[in-house]
């Protein structure tokens, strides 16, 4: 099987397994785990923030950020295709008491300053004020779009002018930065908090990072405890996370493989795929007369795994465990899958 369902399917390397076994550990709820502390320090530095907290998942990181930045009854501004809105089980509403104002931020998923001003609401007797703007980079549902620093900065500045804090869902922040040749610290310079995943393209088995100011992280550690995310000898999972931070540059290989995959699939009669910014390839199979369900099933039967991404759209995600030869093979197999329809 060539598994292109996600970059989360990667298996930890032998080095990661050895690092987990040998990690120095302590009770992290007491702040005693040296490996977690090292990971948090390095991770904070990598995105130019004062401090960071290690969390079990990207979802928990985003949800903690929303809770820390807002008061119940406020509104969160998000793109209608945002992960926090579509795929986090309504957490903003349930865990932070937020009303979500989701609007179409366009094909790259980043709002313009005008859109931020248009959708922001000032609190009044009748109106729930806006308490948070949430941005996403890369933008998953928009097809792994790498949003420029200029666009992130412009949206963040517009929010800040209205007194609204900004969280960046950077689950794949490093993919964006590698694709754009941008420094991650510069990318996160104008936002108040940023989450990124160690467990996606960077290849760690578990874990994400939530970074921000010292005061923000102090509150985030408390909310993490409340959400059940306080961990004990977490150095066991932080050690592979430290090695994952060394996997940033190689994301360029995933992007190149994604480009090869997209061009190959686009050349298959009945399929179309735009050249991706990063490691996410979205394929349209409507011209082949195949729904995404049918296409995904046909691909699976020939040995390629992808995921449905809309009625006629399928997502393939390149990753650390997939080679150039694998993606070239996947193109041939997907061609067979379309032929056999
Ligand atoms: C994967 C993802 C998350 C959530 O991360 P989990 O570790 O799966 O909870 C959040 N935002 C985006 C954009 C993602 O792609």
TrEMBL record:
BP GO annotations? glycine biosynthetic process; L-threonine catabolic process
Instruction: Enumerate the UniProt keywords alphabetically.
Output: Lyase, Pyridoxal phosphate
One GO molecular-function entry: L-allo-threonine aldolase activity
Provide the Aromatic amino acid beta-eliminating lyase/threonine aldolase domain boundaries: 3-285
Q: Gene3D superfamilies, alphabetically?
A: Aspartate Aminotransferase, domain 1 (3.90.1150.10), Type I PLP-dependent aspartate aminotransferase-like (Major domain) (3.40.640.10)
Q: Name one Pfam family in it.
A: Beta_elim_lyase
What are the TM regions of this chain, as residue ranges? none
Cofactor(s) recorded for this entry are:
pyridoxal 5'-phosphate
GO annotation, cellular component aspect: cytosol
Positions of modified residues (N6-(pyridoxal phosphate)lysine):
200
Protein family per UniProt: Belongs to the threonine aldolase family.
The identity of this protein, by name, is Threonine aldolase
Taxonomy of the source species: Archaea, Methanobacteriati, Methanobacteriota, Stenosarchaea group, Halobacteria
């Amino acid at each position: 099987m060539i598994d292109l369902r996600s970059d989360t399917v990667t298996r930890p390397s032998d080095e990661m397994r050895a690092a987990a076994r040998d990690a120095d550990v302590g009770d992290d709820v007491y702040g005693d785990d040296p490996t977690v502390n090292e990971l948090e320090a390095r991770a904070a530095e990598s995105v130019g923030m004062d401090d960071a907290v290690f969390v079990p998942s990207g979802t928990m990181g985003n949800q903690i950020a929303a809770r820390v930045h807002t008061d119940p009854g406020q509104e969160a501004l998000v793109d209608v295709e945002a992960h926090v809105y579509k795929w986090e089980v309504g957490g903003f509403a349930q865990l932070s008491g937020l009303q979500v104002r989701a609007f179409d931020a366009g094909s790259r998923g980043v709002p313009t300053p005008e859109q931020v001003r248009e959708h922001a609401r000032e609190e009044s007797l009748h109106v729930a004020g806006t308490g948070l703007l949430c941005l996403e980079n890369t933008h998953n549902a928009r097809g792994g779009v790498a949003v420029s620093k200029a666009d992130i900065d412009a949206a963040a500045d517009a929010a800040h002018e209205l007194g609204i804090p900004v969280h960046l869902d950077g689950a794949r922040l490093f993919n964006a930065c590698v694709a754009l040749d941008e420094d991650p610290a510069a990318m996160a310079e104008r936002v108040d908090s940023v989450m990124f995943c160690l467990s996606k393209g960077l290849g760690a088995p578990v874990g994400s990072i939530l970074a921000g100011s010292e005061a923000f992280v102090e509150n985030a550690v408390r909310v993490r405890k409340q959400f059940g995310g306080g961990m004990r000898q977490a150095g066991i999972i932080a050690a592979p996370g430290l090695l994952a931070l060394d996997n940033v540059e190689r994301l360029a290989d995933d992007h190149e493989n994604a480009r090869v995959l997209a061009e190959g699939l686009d050349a298959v009669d009945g399929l179309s795929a735009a050249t991706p910014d990063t490691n996410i390839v979205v394929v349209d199979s409507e011209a082949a007369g195949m729904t995404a369900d049918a296409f995904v099933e046909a691909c699976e039967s020939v040995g390629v795994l992808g995921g449905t991404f809309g009625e006629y759209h399928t997502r393939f995600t390149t990753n650390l465990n997939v080679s150039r030869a694998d993606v070239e093979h996947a193109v041939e197999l997907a061609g067979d899958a379309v032929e056999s329809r």
